[in-house]
Amino acid sequence: MMVLKTLLLLLFLNVISFVVIANPPTCPAGLDKDCGDSSQWNGEFFPEIPNIKYEGPSSKNPLAYKWYNAEEEILGKKMKGWLRFSVAFWHTFRGTGSDPFGASTKYWPWEDGTNSVAMAKRRMRANFEFINKLGVDRWCFHDRDIAPDGKTLEESNANLDEVVALAKELQGTKIRPLWGTAQLFMHPRYMHGAATSSELGVYTYAAAQVKKAIEVTHYLGGENFVFWGGREGYQTLLNTDMGRELDHMASFFKAAVAYKKKIGFNGTLLIEPKPQEPTKHQYDWDAATAANFLRKYGLIGEFKLNIECNHATLSGHSCHHELETARLGGLLGNIDANTGDPQIGWDTDQFLTDIGEATLVMLSVVKNGGLAPGGFNFDAKLRRESTDVEDLFIAHITGMDTLARGLRNVAKLIEDGSLAELVRKRYQSFDTELGAQIEAGKADFEMLEKKALEWGEPKVASGKQELAEMIFQSAL
């Protein structure tokens, strides 16, 4: 039965390829060069989708913004300045709907069943049509998502250069990458990790790949560069020298810092924490672990963190907790806006649609003064069962509206002031002379013992948690 299904799938892909070849696309205006690699339907991959506009909360149009009004000013800054939205190339244009238990379910109009450079160019044209219709001006990519891996490093680099040249042309002056990154986890060479691999050859190959990815990100005007160590960890400590691997990873990061400065790339370097999956334990488990690593190796001023909400919950924290941990350490650089399913124990990368969660996220962002040069990347994918091109737009519109609504709710909370006042009153006993001495590190135990004997048993006030939750909910 499995063999029959495979043969039928191959037959289907061959038919699709024949249709594409037998019906070549018409060259779009201004894109006569490499027309065969461009797009179908006179250059439009999304012919039935209009440019997405703001229509307000009363709109019933699924292809319109209800809460995200890019030019509207909130808390002294335009919404687009607070939110800085970005489209993730890998989920949006390489997502197939496959999961550990099932094959692909999506057959997009830009796909022809190959992973050639010509196919990569088609995806890139679809990417920029999507971005323009959505009305955002940033995107994120992995090197091996936008261009196929070659048989040699030289061939891989050449493939990447060819696709990136097209991306540069299509970006124009308005669009740029929020960040780029190197994919150091899918290829079998990275089975033991990249910067933490036990094989010297793999370490050097990974360094060369990151070098090229930084160069490409710089060339495209990228604002940040991300390191996600999906294989930087271990499956068992019985065969792992953890100390040596951590030292190697630190050396790798230091070399990245040096090269970034050498070529004049001013983008922020970001580390993306995740506890496990695919490895049993990854060295950047959560924000606190990553921050400790940076401090230990003298890298605290060179990196910030890219916090992903789904990763936060996998590490046993809320997204709000991870954002606050990063923010208070001066390390909040970017947010991968997604969520997981509490009934599924793995990284499902769903679009964030919970208004309460979005409001908590925006509380941290506003307290941080914004995210620039970082922003919100939709590291999220359609559900396996969602297979229409329209679904790509609806998912992003919903994610953008959710965070925009969260921002509006934060503005309400700040204007009302009740929540801030509740917190102030809770700690008001420290707004005294002794409290100031404690917070300045000038109160020793002898002084504190004297006060304890003088005051006797302390009175403990209510935390007013239910009132805090009521105030918060009233803003939603």
Architecture overview:
There is one protein chain. The protein has 476 residues and is an alpha/beta fold. It folds into two domains: 68-416, Alpha-Beta Barrel (TIM Barrel), CATH 3.20.20; 429-474, no CATH class. 46% of the residues lie in helices and 10% in strands. It has helices spanning 2-22, 79-83, 89-94, 117-134, 143-146, 153-171, 200-219, 242-262, 287-296, 309-314, 319-328, 355-367, 389-416, 418-426, 433-439, 445-455, 465-474, and strands spanning 53-54, 64-65, 73-74, 77-78, 85-88, 138-142, 176-181, 224-227, 233-234, 268-271, 281-282, 303-308, 332-336, 376-378. Helix 6 (153-171) runs parallel beside helix 7 and helix 7 (200-219) packs parallel to helix 8.
List the total number of helices.
17
Beginning-to-end CA distance, first to last residue: 52 Å
Radius of gyration: 25 Å
User: How many domains make up the coordinates?
Assistant: 2
**What is the CATH top level name of the largest domain?**
Alpha Beta
Strand order, main sheet: write it out. 5-6-7-8-10-12-13-14
Percent helix range: 40-55%
* Mean pLDDT reading: 91
Number of E strands: 14
The CATH architecture assignment of the largest domain turns out to be Alpha-Beta Barrel
Largest sheet: 8 strands, parallel, barrel
Percent of sequence in beta strands: 5-15%
The CATH superfamily title of the largest domain:
Divalent-metal-dependent TIM barrel enzymes
CATH topology of the largest domain: TIM Barrel
Give the uncertain stretches in residue-range form: 1-43
Shape: globular
